Amino acid sequence: MLMKVFDRSLVARITASAALVATMLICVSVAMLVHLDIRQAKATLAGKADLSGQMVADAVSAAVWNLSPEEAAVALDPLRAVDDFAKAAVYGTRGELFFMMKAGAHTVPDDALLTRIIEISHPDRQGRPQKLGTLRVDFDLHPTLDAIKRNALFLVGSGLFFLVLVVWGTVYVLRGITAPIVRMTDVMSDLAAGEIDIVVPNRHRADEIGRMAHAVQTFQHNAVELRNAKECAEKAIATKARFLASASHDLRQPLQSLFLFADGLERHVVDREGSQKLLHLRRGLDVMKELLNALLDISRLDAEAEEPDIKDFPLSLLFSQIEGSYRTVAAAKGLTFSITGSELAVRSDPTLLRRILGNLIENAIQYTRAGTVCVDCRSVGPSVRIEVQDTGIGIPRNQMEDIWTEFHQVGNPERDRNKGLGLGLAIVQRLAKLLDCRVEAVSALGRGSIFSIEVPLGQTSAIARPEPAPIAGPTGGRYAVLVDDDAIVLMGLQSTLRDWGYEVLAAGSTDQALERLRTGIREPDIIVADYRLRGGRVGTEAIVKIRELFDSNIPGVLLTGETGPECAADAAMHGLSIAQKPISSRQLNVAVERLLSEASD
Ligand SMILES: Nc1ncnc2c1ncn2[C@@H]1O[C@H](COP(=O)(O)OP(=O)(O)O)[C@@H](O)[C@H]1O
Ligand SMILES: [Mg+2]
């Protein structure tokens, strides 16, 4: 308890040390003084006793010589006037008592007496001293001892008084020193806790505390500047992310119609040269779509708009999806693709982890001319380490850091976008950060590379396997309602659905669609609506109102260029599908067919 107080308080510690030193000094001084006092008092009494004895010795000798006790009484009588005199006794040579005189009636115990024995003698007729016996004089020690006690008490009292004075003085002086230190400590604790809008005290002092205050103020200024810079950077990132998100959203609109028209054009292109050009057009569109998606991914990850959905799932499930996606791609390039079976479960977001591994495997396949691409995993402590190994071209040692930065590509100085965008690893790194995982790469030039990620181990509990993708069936003269405020996209959608054999009602707004549906009699089989419509309205409203009109839960698809949570929440609430723009006619076909087959189940 005391040690805790000492640990926490400088004042307590220094005061205790000062009190200890003062106590020791006072104790030693008091002891020495008392000792001296006792010696002094005893010596005085002894001197007095000697003197008194000597004073009466001759008269007592004469009384003994004359064998007269009365004379002895007269000889000893002056002793009564001496302070502290207790008794006197005269003994013969054989120790027999000749005479005794007491100062008072009470008897002083022997251990409280100071005794002096004096030999008495008398000259005989020849003048030779004749031994007559002894004179014993006793003095009472009590008064002297009492005086010593009083003195000692006084000394101890003064000592205690001094001790209190020392403690009080120390605390007083120390408070003057420690109070500003305590205030500085509080300010520093506040700073450390992130409260940087504080006023630093003691700045005007010229001593060490003043210098400490200046240093703390410098820290505070730095912290304020850092916070401002961080806020600026965050704002800039958010603005950049918003800019990128809206730019890519706005680019998706025309791109969407380009996709649909390119698909629609296919039927009308008959000669080889036209087909060739259409192929180039499609390739260009694919690259543009990829670039837009990657840019949007990066801006969303930078703006921290993505929330991982962490759960336990078996790796085998993820691996089987990956195998399905990449075995044929690898085989087409003449590579062996192997993936190790695993009983392990991980705790992560399966979609994001799949995106990470997908990127790494795509790279492995892309940068390997011959040999194998292998996905391996093993448990390492509380994590599972998943490795993507290849026997490819490898990465120069001096570029191992750079490959993670945006648009950095080792072998594409001419920035040919057909050779990739240089954004895959930048996205991988951001996704790994979002999942709180470590990604690493080791590589040997010309021999191959290993990219690895460490994911937390999970509980082995299976998750539902995804439903197999629906296969497009014949449309059988179905009726589709399309709502989009972009006339070109609407035309593109219309021609695409017509190509699939649909009867189509195309409307530029919800009201137009409702108006035209009211005059008709046929209930639509499917509604495809753009999410953002003019006048702040949304496609969800169009679908809901059309459903109300026919009092039927008609399947609906929302087309959107946004990846924010708003559209997803809206869609989930009304049981709608989302198709991300730009969508190819094949992807739209898959989405529509899946919905229709679900509706017919
Ligand atoms: N497995 C690999 N083997 C060799 N080089 C690789 C591998 N993975 C990535 N790289 C190098 O890192 C660069 C950046 O990769 P990435 O960000 O995915 O962009 P991209 O694949 O579009 O070029 C690549 O251009 C390539 O030079
Ligand atoms: Mg890549």
Automatic annotation (TrEMBL):
Subcellular location(s) per record? Membrane
Q: Which reaction does it catalyse?
A: ATP + protein L-histidine = ADP + protein N-phospho-L-histidine
For this protein, the record's CDD domains field holds: HAMP (cd06225), HisKA (cd00082), REC (cd00156)
Q: Which segments cross the bilayer?
A: 12-34, 152-174
* Enzyme Commission no: 2.7.13.3
Matching entries from InterPro entries are given as: CheY-like_superfamily (IPR011006), HAMP_dom (IPR003660), HATPase_C_sf (IPR036890), HATPase_dom (IPR003594), His_kinase_dom (IPR005467), HisK_dim/P_dom (IPR003661), HisK_dim/P_sf (IPR036097), Sig_transdc_His_kin-like_C (IPR004358)
Record-annotated Response regulatory domain positions:
479-596
Chief place where the protein resides: membrane
> PTM 4-aspartylphosphate: at which residues?
D530
Name of the protein described by the UniProt record: histidine kinase
Species name: Skermanella aerolata
